[in-house]
């Protein structure tokens, strides 16, 4: 299927938004976060005199950097992921494909399925759909973005320990794809309509993203989604997952001077001011994305973060890149 | 040549009336002292020495020294820096980029993270103040209690009637600094950038009845500050000179060093 004009317009918009105020290095230069630089296969993300820089012409849109950035400083310019999930949720046996290979079949598309190398997003997708779904990877081997495949496999393997829904399909014969039964004519007008809507809401979505100031707290979209989905689970399931997924944060009371510097540094709002001045901050672990900014900052070494499952999973992907 | 703003404070003329400090508070809408933060961008260091009748009292106005080698700027971890040196030599602050880590407050030799009671007696001071994370700034103005119930208005009521927070808020007419700061950021003297950019003098300079404060461009030999500096070359003093901060605030006094 060839992309129609509206779809082309969408493709032209593909790319990244760099939100410097979220980036660990922009917030606290002495940190050595290099997750995105390390994983980028084409050197398109780099640190310049001016700060974090994305070189559009070098980027091959694999979205690996988006997947590894712990704080949501790199955002894929596309429709919010919930739109994708909504489309998939309407199918009995959902198939997710990419727009990098328009000839592949799928009920919804991401720029590149490399985005799902982030285990948190893959987990959220599994929880949201609540049933098996297929990732159409049948043409990935011929794609320049094939570098993302090993990471995606690690991600899927790890998530399957909690919820085993995502199926990585590399052989066309394994693909179980059913189009909605609509006539050809109907189909094309539907597609035109949908992609027009999509193009409009993309434009909306892009406009809706003003640069935040450094002091603002913001959770990466995938964490917000995950937290929403956890709310839908039964109490037992939720307690179980929450306990395993999120880190624990402790302060060694003697060492913490109560300066609240970490409250300011934390980009996600996981460190809350204490009730009384001079006391250690309060930790809101569900907001912690384990960027390690606070521990790198605290000069009295008072913050102890024990990684949760999500952080460990992400770590696995990052260490695989070296 | 680019500008290099500086201030000279002539301690022969200064009578310690505090008009500068009050004018600064009005101009910049700074809060009352709370949580160990003075919020006094212009303040005083006071000293009483000796035993009666042989006593000696020193009162020295202090403010951000707009240091040429500013430790606050050096330590600010944000890119681009939230605490930065402007082209005109002043040390400015950007609230949008400040994350409230307080490293500047810690590094500045003229600032304290938390002031104790001794600061009420002028024994210490802090040129950088911090607005606590998660605590509304200007919080005193949210108070709903009436001093004399049924008679006086509460602070919150005054705010509501006056339509400003604080009620007598002074809106800056130029510059890009916010006239009222938010929670979770630091604040300090900006050499009244919003006035100076308009060709006016800083509020403290305007207010001083003794004309003890002289502000201007040190790179312009004809400016008042350059003249005062030249005329007092031998006795000119700077606060905590040995910290290597190269302050751009100078004290004039021909006897005894008030800064030690
Ligand atoms: S999308 Fe892929 S190629 Fe582009 S900057 Fe990110 S990691 Fe590099
Ligand atoms: S991974 Fe994210 S936080 Fe780390 S350097 Fe890259 S953009 Fe900044
Ligand atoms: S609490 Fe620390 S590790 Fe967690 S997101 Fe905040 S700064 Fe990062
Ligand atoms: S006096 Fe303190 S706040 Fe002012 S420039 Fe010097 S170091 Fe910075
Ligand atoms: S408190 Fe703000 S201005 Fe001061 S060092 Fe931290 S980020 Fe910079």
Give a brief description.
Chain A has 322 residues and is an alpha/beta fold. Helices cover 38% and strands 13% of the residues of chain A.
Largest sheet, strands/sense/barrel of chain B = 3 strands, mixed
Strand content of chain B: 15-25%
For the biggest β-sheet of chain A, the strand order reads: 6-5-7-8
Shape of chain A: globular
Please give the alpha-carbon distance between the first and last residues of chain B: 34 Å
Oligomer designation: heterodimer
The structure class of chain B reads alpha+beta
Our Rg estimate of chain A from Cα atoms comes to 20 Å
Would you state the CATH class of the largest domain in chain A? Alpha Beta
Number of strands of chain B: 9
Order of helices and strands of chain A: HEHHEEHEHEEHEHEHHHEHEEHEH
Strand content of chain A: 5-15%
By DSSP, the count of extended strands of chain A is 12
Q: What's the story with the biggest beta sheet of chain A? A: 4 strands, parallel
Total number of helical segments of chain A? 13
Descriptive notes:
The complex is a heterodimer of chains A (322) and B (260). With 322 residues, chain A is an alpha/beta fold. Chain A has helices at residues 5-12, 24-27, 35-39, 64-68, 81-89, 119-129, 149-160, 184-207, 221-232, 235-245, 261-265, 293-297, 309-320; strands spanning 16-18, 45-48, 51-54, 74-76, 95-98, 108-110, 133-136, 166-169, 248-251, 271-272, 282-283, 303-306. Chain A has 2 domains: 5-206, Alpha-Beta Plaits (2-Layer Sandwich); 229-320, Alpha-Beta Plaits (2-Layer Sandwich), CATH 3.30.70.20. The longest helix of chain A has 24 residues, at 184-207. The radius of gyration of chain A is 20 Å and the shape is globular. With 260 residues, chain B is an alpha+beta fold. Chain B is built from 7 helices and 9 strands; from the N terminus they run βαββαββαβαβααβαβ. The model of chain B has no long low-confidence stretch (mean pLDDT 95). The relative contact order of chain B is 0.24. In chain B, the strands form 4 sheets. In chain B, strands 8-1-9 form a 3-stranded mixed sheet. Chain B has helices spanning 19-28, 71-75, 103-107, 155-162, 193-196, 203-207, 224-231; strands spanning 5-10, 42-51, 54-63, 83-85, 91-93, 129-130, 186-187, 213-217, 249-252. Chain A binds chain B through residues 20-21, 25-30, 50-51, 213-215, 259-261, 263-265, 272-273, 277, 297, and chain B through 35-36, 77-80, 82, 95-103, 106, 113, 132-135, 182, 184-185. The complex binds iron/sulfur cluster (5 copies). One iron/sulfur cluster (SF4) is lined by residues 64-67, 70-72, 91, 108, 110-111, 127-128, 188, 245 of chain B.
